[in-house]
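REVIEWER CHECKLIST
Item 1: Sequence provided? yes
Item 2: Single chain? yes
Item 3: Sequence as submitted:
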Amino acid sequence: MAEVPAQGSLSAFFRDLERRLIPSGLLWTVFPKKPFMEELGFPFTWIEVQKAGLAAGLVDNKIAAFSPRLTSIRFVIPLARRRNP
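Item 4: Structure as written out by the authors:
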């Protein structure tokens, strides 16, 4: 689980995490829901977070409310890129 940073590059954030994932691992990313983005100083939209994860070579396969103010997207390495044990 990782909190999406409010500063810096989303691309760099996801590239770093993608490199550290084990093939069958998963990554939950947590960030503010739309009504709380300005209040919490979060500059990225939901779609920007999703697109950055996809651009890093991950696949999003679940969305869940993390809390009343936070949402989360689960990313995984695509099956086609996972090595056979």
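Item 5: Key structural point noted by reviewer: The longest helix spans residues 10-20.
Item 6: Recommendation: ____
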